[in-house]
TrEMBL record:
PROSITE patterns in the record: IMP_1
Protein name (record): 3'(2'),5-bisphosphonucleoside 3'(2')-phosphohydrolase
GO molecular-function term, one example from the UniProt record: 3'(2'),5'-bisphosphate nucleotidase activity
Organism per entry: Demequina litoralis
Record-linked Pfam families: Inositol_P
SUPFAM superfamilies per the UniProt record, alphabetical: Carbohydrate phosphatase (SSF56655)
Amino acid sequence: MAHQDVADAELAALLARAAGAELLRVRRESGLEGKELGNAGDAAAQEVLAALLAEHRPHDAVLSEEAKDSAVRLSADRVWIIDPLDGTREFSEGRADWAVHVALWEKGELTLGVVAIPGEDLVLSSADTPEVPARDESAPLRLAVSRSRPPAVTEPVRAALDAELMPMGSAGVKIAAVARGQVDAYVHAGGQYEWDSAAPVAFARAAGLHTSRIDGSALVYNGSDPYLPDLVVCRPDLAPRILAAISDYTDGDL
């Protein structure tokens, strides 16, 4: 079978699973701890993803957190946006709430997103998105929040929803948690890059969730500057309340 005959969705899942397996191996066998373990994981996962993309999609451009950026991608029709290890801290602490992100951008739009959560032996793909579970209307709303760096905007949104905060690691894990029905919303305004959200946002969109910037504008990928500092991912019926709460928030410390 020619390499190009491998479907993009199949390849993305293979990439995410292979990087995840390598990360688990590094954590199990390297003998490293803390920051050294995180750095080793970043490098090892990047090597796996880069090699597989070079083999299977040698003519596509790549934007990765762990590789030097190239302006070539700005004129490319196809760009893989990858985060070899999202949630480095959680990975290095032996936790399960870290992820591998593999997204494909084509001619202006995200067309595919795969999020692997190796600690749960889970691979989520926008090509095969399950229905978001129905919410228990008698239960409090749940808002995913960073374990270590909750942004200032969290509190006004929590108050507007009268929600419980659910601390989690990786952005991919938090966004996937909305699609999996584990939480109802994730709002972030503390600084991220395209690779932090591209794959999970593609998955969330395929699941029918609301995805936007905190001002309600569209999340746009493959920009000249990959900085994409804020987002809202939530059940669609909650979006008006969340965006209104953010709009009313005048602290300015977003």
